[in-house]
Amino acid sequence: MRADLLYDECAKRPEGTTFFQRDLTSMQVANDVEELVKMVSDLSKRHLLQPLQFDGETCWKLRPRDIADKLLKLVPDERLLYQYIDNAQTEGVWSKALRAKTNLAQPTVTKYLKSLEAKDLIQAVMSVKTPNRKMYLLKHLKPSEDVAGGPWQNEGDFDTALIDIATQVIGKKVQEETCIKVAGNWNNYTSADRQAAIAHKKVQVKGVPDIEELLPVQPYHPPMEPAQPKLVHRTNPFYPTTASLAEYLNSIQLLRGKTVRESDMEQLLEMMVLDGTLEKVTATTYRTVLQPPKQVYNGFVDAPCGNCPVFDLCSDEGPITARTCVYFAEWLETTSEEAN
User: Where in the cell is it found (predicted)?
Assistant: First the structure.
């Protein structure tokens, strides 16, 4: 049939192409407009062409032959349901909405929806916005993010594996932008900072009259090897924003087939803030949280004896001994004889 020649010409175009009458005429398959109308009518009856409207003008889209063959075998009510589901595209349509649009009884709608699913023409998906609703869309279509969820979700559930990978990638990117590696013995004190800190410490120590009010002894930190680098914040960094990080994640195509919006990235970044990986600098900018070095304690300076005001009176025998010292017992998490 000559109509099939027109179909074959249309099939050479990219999938999803919309054809207007001028496009079909330019293919020069039909000898005149009258013959073209007959061809289009024949293909439409066989469901090989899907009629559409665009700005008040009639146009058509091609259907695969296997789908068209299945549509030919449908009863009218099935075909009506399929048409409404087709019109909904990736947003899908709720079964109760189908009932309202078609005026079919609910048992009939349910029956034919199951039939269309069995014939692999449609699919049912759960909406993340309304989990108690089943949304129906064509089998070959992928549900929109409003239905299936954002890039961090898969079939309505959070994709923990993907989220873990994304947090690692974003964490590394933010660290590169906001931190720099320096030698282990590097410090960012200025001379003024150091003098002010020493003066403040002297005032604190000299003003303490009793051991109970003394500042806790700082744990001993052995000097780090210069060859062992550490992370410090950059002095004047360009802090990454929600928008820049979303653009970066899209550019490396980590989430194939998905686009990360600013709202999606904000959701991920807020989770990383709660986890203590990142911290907010402003409402939309972030930087890496520097982890404190592992504490190494030294008993000689951590023990209360080091700054005890009655150290000279303490001995094996006498009013103050290690056995009766309440501070020593507290440090060892035991009970002194005096307390008994």
Answer: Nucleus
Cα–Cα distance for residue pair 86/98, rounded to 1 Å: 12
In the chain, which ranges are continuous DSSP H helix?
2-11, 21-26, 33-45, 65-72, 76-88, 95-102, 106-118, 145-148, 160-178, 191-206, 242-251, 262-274, 299-302, 326-332
Q: How far is CA 206 from the centre of its chain?
A: 53
Contact (CB, 8 A) for 219 and 297: yes
pLDDT per position as a tens digit, 293-302:
655 556 666 6
Classified by CATH at the fold level, domain 153-185+224-294 comes out as: Arc Repressor Mutant, subunit A (1.10.10)
Contact 98, 109 (CB under 8 A): yes
- pLDDT tens-place string over residues 234-276: 888 889 999 999 999 999 988 877 788 888 899 899 999 998 9
Q: What percent of the chain has a predicted confidence (pLDDT) above 90?
A: 17
Give me the residue spans of the domains in the chain: 2-68, 74-149, 153-185+224-294, 296-339
Paired tokens of 176: 């590169």
Q: Give strand pairing partners of 154.
A: 157
CATH number of 2-68: 1.10.10.10
> pTM of the prediction?
0.46
Cβ-contact 215, 205 below 8 angstroms: yes
Q: Considering Cα of 167, then 170, then 174, then 176, what sign does the dihedral take?
A: positive
CA–CA distances in Å: residue 269 to residues 173, 246, 276, 281, 313: 12, 10, 11, 12, 58
Nearest by Cα to 124 from 100, 92, 99, 164: 92
Q: Which CATH architecture describes the domain 74-149?
A: Orthogonal Bundle (1.10)
Distance from C-alpha of 140 to C-alpha of 121, rounded to nearest angstrom: 8
DSSP at 311: G
- Token pair, residue 294, equals 């592992």
